[in-house]
Amino acid sequence: MLKSRIVYATTFALLLAGCAKSNNTGGSRAETNTLGEQKAPEVNTMPTPRRSGIISDYARLKPSTEFPGTRVWKSDKLGQYKRFIVDPVIVIPSTSTRGVPITEKDKQRLAADFRYEIVDILQATYPVITVPAPKTARIKTAVTEVARSAGPHNDWFRWEGGAAAEMEIVDSMTGEALASAVDSSLVKTNDPGKVTDPYSDTKLVFRGWAARLGKLLLNTH
User: Fold this and answer.
1) Which of 52, 134, 145, 220 could form a disulfide with 164 if both were Cys (CB 3.0 to 4.6 A apart)?
2) pLDDT digits (tens, 9 = 90+) for 54-74
3) Which DSSP symbol is given to 77?
4) Are 150 and 201 a contacting pair, CB within 8 Å?
5) CATH number for the domain formed by residue range(s) 2-30+46-220
6) Are the C-beta atoms of 182 and 166 separated by less than 8 Å?
7) 96 CB neighbour count, 10 Å cutoff
8) Which range, of 20-24, 102-106, 136-140, 174-178, averages the lowest pLDDT?
C-alpha cells in the first residue's frame, strides 16, 4: 500500500507540475509565427463541453473544492468497492475544438491512451477485472471535446491543447451511481516550438485526470 501511495503521489505531482488548468481560456503561447503573422483570435479557448449522457444525474454535480472548473459528485458507498472494471473510453467529437477533423484512427488511439492511463493508475492498488461481480465498480468515460496542440499540418503555432470529458463510476451489478465528474482542461506552456504530436497535450490531460481518479479513490478507501 505504501508503494501504491508513492506511485499516486508521484503521478499527481506530475499533474500539478504539468500545468493542466481547468477551464482556463488565457493564452501564453507566441503571438506571431516565424513570418510575423498574427495567430487566429480565440485559438486558446475551450468551448462549453457537450453532454455525453453517461452521467445519470448532472444536477447533483457540484464544483470541486480542489480543482477549479471541475464538477463532481461522490456517494459514501464508493469506499466499499475494492475492484474495478474499466469500460472502453468513448471519444465523441469528430472535429477538434478548432475545427480540425479527427480521424477514426486518432479517435481509437486517444480512447486507448486514456483507458491505459486509468488502468495503469488503478492496478497499482486494486484488481482490474472484466466480469461484473459484487463490490466491483465499473468506470465509464466519455471524451466530449478534443483540443489539438497544433493545426492540421502541425504548424508553427503551438496551440494550447487539451480535452473535456465526463466520467461516472457505477456498481457493476446494479448500475447504481457511485461517483461522477465533468472537467475540461487546457495545458499551459511557454514553448512556442513546432509540435510533433498534435494530441500530446490531450494525452497529458488524460494522465492528469487518471491521477485525480487515483487520488480520489485513495482518499475514499
Assistant:
1) 145
2) 999 999 999 998 888 899 999
3) G
4) no
5) 3.40.50
6) yes
7) 23
8) 20-24
DSSP type of residue 32: B
Residue 70 to residue 58: CA distance in whole angstroms: 13
d(CA 50, CA 48): 7
Inter-residue contact 148 to 98 (CB < 8 Å): yes
136, β-bridge pairs: 83
For the chain, the domains span 2-30+46-220
Calpha distance 85→96 (Å, rounded):
29
Quick one: three-class SS letters along 80-134? HCCEEEECCCEECCCECCCCCECCHHHHHHHHHHHHHHHHHHHCCCCCECCCCCC
The CA dihedral of 214, 165, 22, 161, to the nearest 10 degrees, is 110
Predicted TM-score (pTM) of the model is 0.79
How is the chain split among helix, strand and coil, in percent rounded to 5? 30, 25, 45
Q: What are phi and psi of 166, to 5 degrees?
A: -125, 145
